[in-house]
Amino acid sequence: MNKQRYWLGLSLSVIMLVMSACSSSTNSGRTAETTVPNTGEAGKTISPEETGTTPENSPKGGKKTIVFSTFNLDDGVKEAKIKYEAAHPNITIDLRHVETDDAHYEAELKKYVTATNTAMLSGKGPDMLTLDSLPSEKYVGQHLLADLSGMLKMNPSFIKGDYFNNILESSQTNGALYGLPLAFFLNVMIGDEGAIKQSGVQIDDKNWTWEKYAETLKQLSQKEPFKSGRGGVGNMIVLPPKTKQEPMQALLSKMVKENYPRFVNEDRRTASFESKAFTDMMAQVKKLVDDGLDLSSLSSMFRTDNVNSASDYLVMIKESGKQARLYAKPRAEGTKAGGYFYPYQIIGINEKSTVKQEASDFLQFLMSEESQSTAKRTGFPIHKKAYEKQVQQLLTKGTIKAYEEGPLKGQSFPVDPAQIKVLEDYLTGAIHPVAFQPSKIEEIVFKESQAFFSGQKSALDVSKLIQNKVTTYLNE
């Protein structure tokens, strides 16, 4: 993984680049435009419409097949399939994915999303599917996904305390869990603690809102060492915005993304963009710029980054400087204090599947300590004991090697137990989920808010327009 971190402005394309970087690019070839290759039998291709309702799924308890559809084939899921089938000879996991390369990735992903949407929205689709790159809000709104929380509660082997329950609970929609992340990334900020202390500016990052954050940045910019440019960890390239309004549009979209449940009720297919909370957020973003804050250079003092493992965190802090440390990200006014995370490898089960119970059992195997401890997966495992094993291995080894392509060029350094403790506080305190890929709703907010930031329309008029377009999208 390349650890040279570049901030490409505040445009929405950054999020797509993040998603692509985390996707596998080791596969090659492609045999059909709207079918997903079946990895169970050589040469066989299937359409996403097929489900577990195959002839062998007889009501008499015979052999059953679970169709599992995913765009990228994860080695952990592939390994779990082999182990699970060996222990359950009456179950076949029909694992289907798309084989592609970097040159065709975006085109194939678009075809996969279109084909899967068609299947799901027509009441068909696979029994299990990864939701990371799919518009799951539409599936939830049309009740196409099973409530996994109910299934887990009925299984006596499921013990909430064994998992990062803050992640599971925060991934719910109106108390129901329609997509279960097998892993997650922390979305954090990194700052120069030494420079901040030298400046004399007091920071309460656990409680700061965007307004308090902006005020802090203004204070820091007037103090040494930030005034002379000697402080900070924002070693990133900033591309100039296309328009004066673009940074404001992007920041508003980002804030909506990070406060998604506040404005969108997926289960009821309703939106709340005509609310005072949203118009206040629009006004808040505009005020930041009116007060002189340059949104295009926010990263000069604090850098937003993603942490995908304990070892990645240790290297990240080491690369960022001797006095670098984590800081909480600012939040919108009126929201709970807590960190942000990206759910990853989000698994859903088709509500219309005839093998829901079998799919649920396989899902529990995927999230078990056994499966998550042995699999080489990206991200923090949802199972706490699997994470603890990773940490223990780091502590036992005692040293860690930096990335060859990073600024430390493969240098080895001691594992700091104190830093591991800091990380754990952020892992258990993350409660705000943020989706990897930009949703259609974000695109609507980004596009339509330009009229407000350019002074062409009032906040109320723009909020009504966004409300109407989002509501139409949710009910299509």
UniProtKB/TrEMBL annotation:
Cite the record's Polar residues compositional bias ranges: 25-38, 48-57
Ordered alphabetically, the record's keywords are: Cell membrane, Lipoprotein, Membrane, Palmitate, Signal
User: Signal peptide span per the entry?
Assistant: 1-23
Alphabetical list of InterPro entries matching this protein: Bact_solute-bd_prot1 (IPR050490), SBP (IPR006059)
Positions of region (Disordered): 25-63
* Entry-linked Gene3D superfamilies: Periplasmic binding protein-like II
Any Pfam family hit: SBP_bac_1
- Hydrolase is among the record's keywords: no
What is this protein identified as? Answer: ABC transporter substrate-binding protein
Q: Which organism is it from?
A: Paenibacillus ferrarius
